Amino acid sequence: MVKEDYYRVKEWMSEYPQVLTKDLEIGETLRLLSEGHCSELPVVDHERLIGVVTIGDCLATIKSGIGWNEPINSIISAVFQSVNEDFSVKQLDGCPTYIVCEKTGMLQGVITQIELLKINQALFQRLEKSKETIEWYTLCFDTAYEGLTIVDEAGVIQLFNENYSRYVGVTKEEAIGLPVENVIENTRIPIVLRTGIPERNQIHWLQGQKMVVHRMPIWKNGRIIGAVGMLIYEGVSEVQQIITQIDLLEQRKGSETSIEVSKVAAQKRFTFEDILGESPAISNTKKLARKAAQSKAPVLITGESGVGKEQFARAIHDTGKMSSGRFISVNCAAIPENLIESELFGYMEGAFTGAKKGGKPGKFELAHMGTIFLDEIGDMPLATQVKILRVIQEKEVERIGGTEPIQVQFRIITATNKNLEKMVREGEFREDLYYRLHVIPLNIPPLRERKSDIPLIISAQLPTLCQMYDSEGKTIDKEVMQLFFRYHWPGNVRELINVLERLFALTSESHITMSDLPNEFFRIEKKQEYMTISSSLSERNEVRQLVHEEEEKNIIEKVLREVSGNKSEAAKRLGITRATLYNKLSRYQL
């Protein structure tokens, strides 16, 4: 892919152009124009471009009777083409074009006929290279999978490979432009377009044969713009052959290995692949968590309620160095304060009224050679925090009513939706315990920051819900999916799953539409939409309302960062003209 910098004029301009000064004589100017074989030259004042002088203006002035020794000050023209250094060469309109610094007005370079010719030659070479790349893509498209097709949002075929042509008996040329259901029998691509839910590894009857296919919606800016249909295996028999090969391979490993494999299969372990999501936000988090799993260091998982903190804790344990031990989960907020120490550290027989005969081991003992997960650690009482710190440091616990310490080895993972740093500053959480726990910090992004994962999460939940409610299957309308993309999801993944379960439980029809959504869902969505619009209007009027220059400068800098330096977009958001923005940028030296 070509970098965007390649098309900016700063990459092509002549950086040291011939320039004139306003006190230069007309005769000398004509000589410079002649020697440079150019029709005009720029005039600068302290390196700032103030205008141009053309050979026509010089000759017309001499013809009018003004002498050769007169300065050019009176014939400087303010009509010329200038752009900033980030201007695209593809939008150049004639030459010479001068490149001027937006902040200072200083001349940085020029694009002449020579540079323009080089640009055109380079663009032509790029075009030829792009044609070659397209040919490679075409070859890959025809080679990849047993069949591959891409449709637009209306279900009309835009791309169709040779393999699919062979199966359906329709040439690529005939297929392109037709509705997909007219070309591929029994296709569910129109349903995927309507619902936005991907369908992976599905059985598809085609030409009297069972095929294995993927059907994937293509999302862009929160709406479906098309779908991809992939024929993975040309028959179920191919899948059966693969399974047979795996079975044969297991048999060759011997009975002992087969027994171990059976044990692992029977005891399902939770992996990072079980955490649904392919967005950059969640992928980066899973990447860090995988690294954390390969150590025994404490992990502090932070994130809003419902993002799946315990899922990450389980995956770290099950794929980590302590996976042979138990995973003990404790919700610190759910245990009454007067019982939390007995739950964590255990107690001896007779330690208190009602104590269990023989005593009871605490959670730390149960987690010996395994992992203890303390969820909602921010709700841990201060008095208990002191004892937790000692257990972590000394690796020993003492039951309530006991006299002898018990040695324990464990890995500790904690989680909270609170700001522990703020709690430390306010004396609500022990600083020494915080730094003991905050060895490997892991922040789980909220669902609103990874909305592209919503279809994947829904797709994974549908079979579970169908089994739970004994349903043959339900589809979700595209408008519902679009609303899901706009919704803020304050309850995160947990809220999404709860909404899906409610829809399954309360909807009698097989297709879920907007009318099936609960009223409070719309009220919350409308409230969020109103808050977003109000916030946008506030930001747009902020520059006009603020008087203090320092505040105005900070706002402009903030908006420029948000739009990645795009001056036109920044001016639009600030509610001012581009010229006004340039003046403010110059004034504040931004």
Structure summary:
The chain is α/β, with parallel strands linked by helices. 43% of the residues lie in helices and 18% in strands. The protein has 22 helices and 21 strands.
Structure overview:
By secondary structure, the protein is an alpha/beta fold. It folds into 5 domains: 117 residues, Roll (CBS-domain); 91 residues, 2-Layer Sandwich (Beta-Lactamase); 168 residues, 3-Layer(aba) Sandwich (Rossmann fold), CATH 3.40.50; 71 residues, Helicase, Ruva Protein, domain 3 (Orthogonal Bundle), CATH 1.10.8.60; 61 residues, no CATH class. The protein is built from 22 helices and 21 strands. The strands form 7 sheets. Strands 7-6-10-9-8 form a 5-stranded antiparallel beta sheet. It has a 5-stranded parallel beta sheet with strand order 12-15-18-11-19. Helix 9 crosses helix 10. The longest helix has 31 residues. The radius of gyration is 35 Å and the shape is extended. 25% of the residues are buried. About 4% of the residues have low confidence. It comes from Sporosarcina psychrophila (Bacillus psychrophilus). InterPro entries: AAA+_ATPase (IPR003593), AAA_lid_NorR (IPR058031), CBS_dom (IPR000644), CBS_dom_sf (IPR046342), Homeodomain-like_sf (IPR009057), HTH_Fis (IPR002197), P-loop_NTPase (IPR027417), PAS (IPR000014). This is Transcriptional regulator with PAS, ATPase and Fis domain.
